[in-house]
Amino acid sequence: MKRAVVLLSGGLDSATALYWARGRGYEAVALSAHYGQRHARELRAARAVARRAGAEFVRLGLRLPWLGSSSLVDRSRSLPDIPARRIGKGRIPSTYVPGRNAVFLSLAISLADAKGAEAVVIGSNAQDFSGYPDCRPEFIAAFAKAAHLGTRRGAEGKRLSVLAPLQRLDKAGIVRLALRLGVPLELTWSCYAGGRRPCGRCDSCKLRARGFAAAHAADPALR
Amino acid sequence: MKRAVVLLSGGLDSATALYWARGRGYEAVALSAHYGQRHARELRAARAVARRAGAEFVRLGLRLPWLGSSSLVDRSRSLPDIPARRIGKGRIPSTYVPGRNAVFLSLAISLADAKGAEAVVIGSNAQDFSGYPDCRPEFIAAFAKAAHLGTRRGAEGKRLSVLAPLQRLDKAGIVRLALRLGVPLELTWSCYAGGRRPCGRCDSCKLRARGFAAAHAADPALR
Known about the structure:
2 copies of one chain form a homodimer. Chain A has helices at 12-23, 42-53, 100-115, 126-129, 137-149, 152-155, 171-181, 203-214; strands at residues 3-7, 27-34, 56-61, 119-121, 161-163.
């Protein structure tokens, strides 16, 4: 059976990417990481989603002291609270975690190369790349080329692909795809604040709400 | 002052890369990682070299359970012991650590992006890339492109470069460059076995010895 390593944060996008991979016939290994994010509770969601999907779950603990430059890690800073239509326009948000997707993708290709998996799957998408540079399709494409060249699989003439199946979807499109794939959306967690309930004010909550609204669906995580 | 993050394992190549960066006027931050390598003693060498160079030293502890597939991590396996002229010819050696340079480079660009550094420096070179896919110039070039595209610096129109100044040198060339730059070679550690003294039998010891011999120099680490 073909195998894929799926980066799983526990949010809407990565859970959908996991179910997409499953639907494509991949035996999935879900990879999550604690890196000091204030919403570390997303890792509980990731574990629950992986279990539901029948995927192996690998959770890493990363201590990267310099990530305190991000408001997603430094709890003493406030999270952005701006109108949904302005999210991703203009400057890189303070929630940007330097090089996060490069680090996550590298860990995933390392795991994939060790396990002989033929693909790495990431849930980055159109909605994010307007704000975070490491979600841009150009970055993913350049990284994919590097991944193929710098691994045993690539050197042995096999393929190690980096797949970003949500790349051209907006949040409404992702919600529709998730519903079609039967993603257990009630288990997912997107809120950056990481409280008991989604805050409704952070960028991630607003984009998610807008996605469900545009897809004419109710968010089962808010019940 | 311009800044660079230098990947520093504590061996001959990375120590030379650090002094090269210093010579080019970079204020260097040295980045090392413990990833379960059997020669974790190289990290003591890295710290000593960084201190001598006046560089900030950042040491990470990575727990990547799948790296046991490498004989450089799994102590129950034996290290290759083959004639020096055959090293790097043919198959990828068992000491290959899956995706190691991708992971290290990603951590370095993350640190560089957080600190506003304009370059990441790696000591990979001609001698290694014959064996390890993640030392090949094509990999480094593809990764460099991804690093520029996926970081704040790149997105803001500044440059984040990945430099591999030893790329076209063989070990003798590196020894000559190290001597010219005043690298404290007596502090460096290359042996994979990680005992009290270099074993003289592993690939790394043999390549180092061959480099010093070809450069008509004595290895001060063997005194």
